[in-house]
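Tutorial handout. Part one gives the primary structure; part two gives the three-dimensional structure as tokens.
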Amino acid sequence: MGKFLYDLFYNTDTLLGGWSASAHAAWAARGAPTVILDILFQLLAAVAVSLFLVLNALFIIWFERKVAARMQLRRGPNRVGKFGLLQTLADTIKLLIKEDIVPDAADKPVFRVAPFVVLVATFLLFVVLPFGKGLTAADLNVGVVYFLAIGSLSVIGILAGGWASNNKFSLMGGMRSAAQIVSYEVPAVLTLLSVSMLAGSLKMGDIVKAQPVYGYALLQPVGFLLFLIASNAEINRAPFDLPESDSELVSGFVTEYSAMRFAFFFLAEYTNLFLAGAFGATLFLGGWRGPLLPPLVWFLIKSYIVIFVLVWVRWTFPRLRVDHLMQFSWKVLLPLALLNLLVTAVLVKVL
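Part two.
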């Protein structure tokens, strides 16, 4: 029993590999095609990720509200459940029972599909995320490229939702989001190229294993900072929340959305916040590696440290002006990312 628990928490890859081999052997002995078993395993992984996605988003919303309250000398949620933990669940139930309104002049099919496009794009990023040893749905050889490619898909749903709403504020919010994500994707790509050069691989698992104990954050301090800024901008969070910008565009691309369709956008935003923290921890803080504690625990601790920093930034800095936002990307972040890539390439070649 002790060995089983140790393998469950510390050698998950060995345990899952043994279970998978036994299941495949038993399945093949019955003469059944193993591809069906592989599909069942993938469906099981998808269900597990879906449950984690929803529960984690509920917790992050509560976490941010509590952190923001402490920063503003307030109590935050403290009425529904112990420490207000059930407040987000109550808000979710409220959204479930609200009326789903679709504007008469909207492009109804596109309007209805847009939130699902954003949520599916977010969900697909979990495929290459290494939660621990052996806890990766698919450790692709081009994991970094996959992360960058799929991470940009959400802009399609945001732009489609803004355009389909037939509302000038929604359209402006969608256009802002497209311009912002494209602009900040460029320094993000260059930054991750630097990390891949250090690790000698585009595979997330290899990048985690190639890092020293302290991660790449000390070797790539500029790269880590650039990644945090670009990630924060790509997920449309303050001070880069120009696509919503309630002081200018009512609510931006979500102005016409209500009930669960609005909740899908909200769920995608906070899931993207977790993904920004998780991939930041994976690429710069050593991922699941660490002493004593189980790999999954180390992964979550590091992820939530990055999430706390992003929450801290949101409640500290005022919103940027839209022209300053674009200038900051092209005139500041892009040259820094190019310089960081050049220095990294020289050091890798020399050392």
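Part three, for discussion. The mean pLDDT is 88. The chain has 14 helices and no strands.
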